[in-house]
Amino acid sequence: MREDCCHFQTRSYSDGEVARFCTLDLAPEAPWRCPENCPRYERLLIDSGFEAGSLALPPVEEEPDAPSEDIVGVLDEAEDIVNAAAPEVIEDLDRNQKRGSWWQRLSRRHKGGDDSMGISDR
Fold first, then answer.
1. What is the rounded CA–CA span in Å between residue 99 and residue 104?
2. Contact between residue 36 and residue 30 where contact means Cβ atoms under 8 Å apart
3. What integer pLDDT is reported at residue 73 of this predicted model?
4. What SS3 state is found at 20?
């Protein structure tokens, strides 16, 4: 990956995993490489007063020995699986958000004076 491109992004997770990707989704072989002669490559411009620190990105794992067409195919299939699951996950989150938290549901249940759980209005 071209780490000097303004469309390059990296995220580190608590388990130590590092994700490197193109924010425009133009690197089908991420995290190993960007397409040659990418039409959207834009060198990251850094102010001349910028001082680089000692923090370095962890190394990217070795590129698999499989042909690049196979790699792109596997990554595309994985993306399709995630994209197919996304609407259902969003629907579940929306449904839970509309219902509110457990304590909001409990307080709604007892606002009408129903004392079925022994909660008094006094």
1. 8
2. no
3. 83
4. strand
